[in-house]
Amino acid sequence: MSRPKVFISSTYFDLKSLREDLDRFIASFGYEPVRHEKGHISYGSKERPEAYAYREIENCDVLVSIIGGKFGSQAAGSDYSISQQELKKALDQGKQVYIFVERSVHNEFDYYKANKDIVGVRYTAVNDIRVYSFLEEIYLLPRGNPVFSFDTGLEIANTLREQWAGLFQRLLSQEANRSQTTLTEELQRSLQTVDQLVKYLTEEKTKGDQGAVNEILFSNHPIFEAVRKITRTKYRLYFTTLTEFNQWLKASRGYKPVDEGAWDSSDYAEWHKDIDGNENELDLLFVKNDLFDSDGRLRLVSPVDWQESWVRTERRHLSNSPHDEISDDIPF
User: Fold this and answer.
1) What are the tens digits of pLDDT across the range 242-257?
2) Which domains occur in the chain, in start order?
3) Rounded distance, CA 34 to CA 6, Å?
């Protein structure tokens, strides 16, 4: 069973103990904590270590950002620190984000706003004024990205416990509503199919023209909707042969067929694509092999007989080779 992955983002050395406490708290929920010092990020040799950390955020469900008084290491080609860039990446990707600001920093922030234009003002809670300039951006974020102040790791844990309980309740409510919406959509599609059949039989004044009936049923083949959803395609799909399916997968979604001899199972044909050019990570698409006949033509399957497992995807890591020793100066 898959578990929610929670990315812990902060400077490292000043918040090391707090990161360890948060790791244990997240694991106690049955969730999967992700932090660099535990080897949770698959590093490669082609890019800077921070690039792999940013990419790992894409695979996580939640990011917990802890902002203390240290700026940390500056990100490559940016005025932001690495931990600040991690938060920005998560926000850009629409991830669920929780932001915690050390109380001494939070309290001095008002003083900073009142005196930031005065030359020579010294601040005691931060080692770099860019911590405060970044906080200005944070407080301008739209709703849905809560910011909390804290003194101890226990406060963070208690806040997350309450937030996740509320999130879980909302998800349960949304799931109930989604089930009703899905049922309505399925009924609409079924009614459209029936309407097509009735219209045809009425206009042609015939009964039992199985070829025409099959043609209408084929146009509503359940594989089209299954593939559309799993590839996040917004338009309706239609193909009649394996060749047409291959052409669409490659041109529209970047999937390439896997040689039959390399399939995980002879029951499922496979396609693959790289993740953002990362050769060590693939998205795999599996489709039930006998949905196509020996000539590559799509077989007719009724919605009643259809099984969701016949079309599925999987993300697979091909290598977990660690990157070269990470510099102590890089505070993920």
Assistant:
1) 999 999 999 888 899 9
2) 5-151 (3.40.50), 221-318 (no CATH)
3) 6
